[in-house]
Design goal:
The protein has about 280 residues and is mostly helical. It has one domain (about 1-275). The protein contains 10 helices and 2 strands; from the N terminus they run H-H-H-H-H-H-H-H-E-E-H-H. It has helices at about 1-35, 40-50, 60-85, 90-110, 115-135, 150-165, 170-180, 185-210, 230-250, 255-275, and strands spanning about 220-225, 225. Strand 1 and strand 2 form a beta hairpin. Helix 3 (about 60-85) packs parallel to helix 9.
Amino acid sequence: MSYKCSRLRFMDMLYWALPYLGLGLIVGFFAGLLGIGGGGIMVPLLVMIFTFQNFEQNQLMHMALGTSMASIVLTSMSSAYHHHQRGAVRWDVWKRMALGLLLGTFALSFFINYLPRTFLAIFFSVFMTYVAVQMFLNIKPKPHRTLPNTWGLGVVGFGIGGISALVAIGGGTMSVPFLTWCNVKVQHAIATSAALGVPIALAGAVGYMLSGWHEAELPLYSVGYVYLPAVLLISLVSVFTVPLGVKLSHCLPVGVLKKVFALMMLLLALKMLQIVFLP
């Protein structure tokens, strides 16, 4: 009997953990390939997983956003490291944008409590739809000749950080187009974006932890709006697929993959609205 009970408990734990492990594999690959943190994929899928696991309905969006942001930390570090090994990260640009990213991300994530889940869901879905359309149609603004000065890059970083906090992304969907618009080589833009995702993720994770610190009825093993078991599983698995994405980003055209990714983001944005408004 004890053997059967132990086996059942193990199967229950495995069944509970598998969605997070699978999500980690996907997130790591796209983090390396496109220089994104993976929040565009994680947030709607985490909402679905948390719904299935009977999390408090009013906290679903906040928990998904905070958990996604915290999960991006290790993924972004791994992606940045592997891109740095190839000499592709523009650290001069990173230094001038990092402070703005930190301030923008922390400011918006800390005040997330004042935003209702319906607003967060709509903002997330509209933003991701916009990004998906741009990515699918491969819309690129005409290249600018030079990057802004230090103050200009700081202001841009603040804006990217703030929007990243609201949709729990590493900022790659904005920083890659911005850097290429400033005539930065696309491989360097992707690599630098991966490095920029580190301060965004760190500030966002701390902000979500603090903003949800005193919330009642949070799931067990949560710190504020960050669900630690999910963060641990997603982060541990994602680092194994990051190198594959990095390798492909430097040797393969990503046009078709971008279109597939864009369609997936559009479907996930629609699913997000369905979950929130038609539970």
